[in-house]
Amino acid sequence: MIHAKVPVGKEVSKDEDAVRLIVSSLTELLKLERVMLDRSGEANDEGTNSMMSDLITAQEKIVWMMKAWLNQTV
Question: 12-68 pLDDT, tens per residue?
């Protein structure tokens, strides 16, 4: 049985809790996306590799901005 690693929020009503949940979820997704990036590189799949690289770059920026908003170390 596979267990999900991406946290799920329920009844999140505070802004800081919501942002922390998003940061946590994106951090877990980034781990999976980096594996996909590595595998697409190994398979010489330039299209997927480029797409994953762009996605990772955008999500890392979002995580950075949200951590800054939370006054966390980036």
Answer: 999 999 999 999 999 999 999 999 999 999 999 999 999 999 999 999 999 999 999
Residue 27 makes CB contacts below 8 A (sequence gap 6+) with: 63
End-to-end CA distance of the chain: 34
Spatial contact of 62 and 24, defined as CB atoms under 8 Å apart: no
Secondary structure string (H, E, C) spanning 17-49 = HHHHHHHHHHHHHHHHHHHHHHHHHHCCCHHHH
How is residue 31 written in tokens? 């781990």
**pTM, full prediction:** 0.84
Type and span of the H or E element at 74: none
What's the one-letter identity of residue 34?
R
